[in-house]
Specification:
alpha+beta, 112 residues, 3 strands, three-stranded antiparallel sheet, 6 helices
Length: 112
């Protein structure tokens, strides 16, 4: 079976569009955090070191509009309680991200 290499340099390439959506380090780190299960905003902020509240909120909104994250309101009355979880689409990223981790660990071991 031949490897098909997409033309990621073309703006209309689906692979390029996916890479652009996932290129943010915050998105990938949030996906890693949510692989452990649903979490509230404050929990995510503690787990994802270095992210500001504003950036976390904006990134979660963008990921929700892309269909990667689901936002669920647990308590409507102020103070509102909301939790975030990966959608089925978001969970499909677990295997590709694991492959990247395996690759990084192998390169790290090669350098020792």
């Amino acid at each position: 079976m031949a490897l098909i290499v997409p033309d990621v340099l073309e703006e209309s390439c689906a692979t390029r569009q996916a890479l652009e959506r996932l290129a943010s380090k915050w998105r990938v780190l949030i996906i890693y955090a949510l692989l452990a299960g649903p979490q509230r905003h404050a929990e995510l902020r503690r787990r994802v070191a270095g992210i500001s509240q504003k950036v976390l909120t904006g990134t979660l909104r963008d990921m929700e509009s892309d269909g990667l994250v689901q936002r669920r309101v647990l308590k409507e009355d102020p103070p509102q309680h909301v939790e975030y979880s990966l959608t089925a689409l978001g969970k499909t990223l677990q295997e590709p991200l694991a492959a990247i981790c395996d690759w990084a660990l192998a390169r790290s071991a090669d350098r020792r």
